[in-house]
Amino acid sequence: MKNFSVPIKYGLLIAVGLIAYFLILSLFNVHIYPLFSLFNGVIMAAGMWLALKAYRNSKGAKFKYQKGFMASLLTGFNATIVFTIFFAFYSTELNPDFLGNLINMWRTDYGTEIGIVLFVVAVMGFATSLVLTLAYMQLFKDSWNTKEGQQHTY
User: Fold this and answer.
1) Which residues, including other chains, have CB under 8 Å from residue 93's CB and lie 6 or more apart?
2) Where would one find the signal peptide in this protein (predicted)?
3) What is the DSSP letter of 3?
4) Mean pLDDT of the chain
């Protein structure tokens, strides 16, 4: 459980940030415009960066690239799962008209239902998590431009 403490803790913090941002947007009735979801990436990026730093600090010299990759990826996946569950609850129970307002043109033309919207929300979160993890781990990988690293070349 200790290995998963950082991904769970920071995943929940990211999810709380995403939910709070969504609810603030809903107060001003601008949550129906997908453009505002771009800031979700900033929230994910900041949270995953903090999670990766906390994980690296907890491991110290024993920090391994593969374990850091998994910690970062699991953090983003946890946040995505929690936010997707909230989004499903919000769009079906708290505000049943939300989906109709969000995709008013698709609703009549393409027959888009809640399932596909939740699938898109989840895939966007998982993709963002993967891309951010790949980008961040480039900063944490060991350089082969050292004397020790030169021993591992062909």
Assistant:
1) none
2) none
3) G
4) 85
